[in-house]
Structures are given as C-alpha cells and as structure tokens.
Amino acid sequence: MTEPLDMTLDELRAALGPLLPGEAAFDGWSEEAAGAAARALGIPADRARLAFPDGAVGMIDAWFGSIDRAMAEALPPETLAAMKIRVRITALVRARLEAAAPHREALRRALAILALPTNAATGAKLGWRAADAMWRLAGDDATGLAHYTKRLTLAAVYGSTMLVFLDDESDGFSDTYAFLDRRIENVMQFEKFKARLKPDPDRHFSPARFLGRLRYPA
C-alpha cells in the first residue's frame, strides 16, 4: 500500500473519503474537517486542502465514492449471483445505507449542501453515479432508454429512502427497510404492468399515415 505522503492527489482523496464524515459531523464539510482527517491519516492538513480544491462538494464526492467501494466489497459478484434481481437491488441499497449509518449527521449536512441551487447538478450526478453503480453490480446490461429509466427510477427510490433513513429511530432501521421494500415492490409492479402491455402496430406513429390523414381527412 502506498504511504500517505507518497500518494497522488487521486489516491489521497480516496484514502481520506471514509475518514471525512467522522469529522464533518462536528466541523461540517469544512477545511477543519479535511485537516482533521488528514492528521488522522498522518499527513499535513495543507496536503488535504490541495486534494479538495472544490471544497465541501469534493469532500462529499470522495465520501460517496468510498460508499461505492464499501458496497462492492460487502456484496461481491458471487454473492449477488445467487440472488434474484429484486433481492440484489434491495441488498445493494441496504449496503449503502449501512455504510453511511455511523455518520447520519454528516449525511444530513452533505445532502443539505448538495441541495443548494449552485450544487444541484453535482447532486444529480452523484445520485446517478450511485444508481449506476448499483445496477452494474446487479448485472444490468440494458441499453437505450431502459438503461436510463432504470437508473432514474433507482435514484428516486434511493433518494426517498435516504430521507426516511435520516430520521429513523426504529430498531435496526426497520422502518427504513420496510419503506424500501414498499418502494421496490411499487417499482416491480409497474415493471410487470409495462411488460403486459402489448404494442399495437396500428397505434404506432406513422408519418405516412399522418400525412395521408391531413390530405384525406376522415
């Protein structure tokens, strides 16, 4: 393993990512938090500042990246392969929440920062990245429109579940996981409904038929 003082900035961001939320819960997503995480890693605080020129947003990005990695480590391909797709997705969302569970206050502060109008694009990008990581680990190989709709749907499920998770005081986050199960069930029912719809060729848009009707109205 590369020594902290010899790390590139990319390596340093990855190493600091999981350390940052423990400091951000008290100091916010600030230079003070980055400096404390740097000292815990054994490097000067100014080195951490170089790693995050974009400040709080970059620090949050690094933490969320560490959650991506923790999720992948918790659910390797051989484990996921034995599950049905619905169970895979549920397990992946739960793995992300479990990785964030010790740092709910830091998560609350992070989401508040990403909700600012100036950070909305970054927040959307990070939500998409999380959904994409989950679908890829689940073995999804969809292309075209299905690729995008799956990720948008999962990002919405994950986002709404996080909001429940932030204020959940139930044992073992049972309320959060019950909410997640209901949301997944809603999505699965909708997918089954779409699958039952048989496309009607007569109802497909035909430019020739449309122009013909304009010329010879019924």
From TrEMBL:
Family the UniProt entry places it in: Belongs to the COQ9 family.
Stored Gene3D superfamilies: Tetracycline Repressor, domain 2 (1.10.357.10)
Residues passing through the membrane, by range: none
Location of the COQ9 C-terminal domain: 121-191
Pathway field: Cofactor biosynthesis; ubiquinone biosynthesis
Name of the featured protein: Ubiquinone biosynthesis protein COQ9
Pfam family, one: COQ9
Keywords of the record: Lipid-binding, Transit peptide, Ubiquinone, Ubiquinone biosynthesis
Role, per record: Membrane-associated protein that warps the membrane surface to access and bind aromatic isoprenes with high specificity, including ubiquinone (CoQ) isoprene intermediates and presents them directly to COQ7, therefore facilitating the COQ7-mediated hydroxylase step. Participates in the biosynthesis of coenzyme Q, also named ubiquinone, an essential lipid-soluble electron transporter for aerobic cellular respiration.
Matching InterPro entries: COQ9_C, Ubiq_biosynth_COQ9
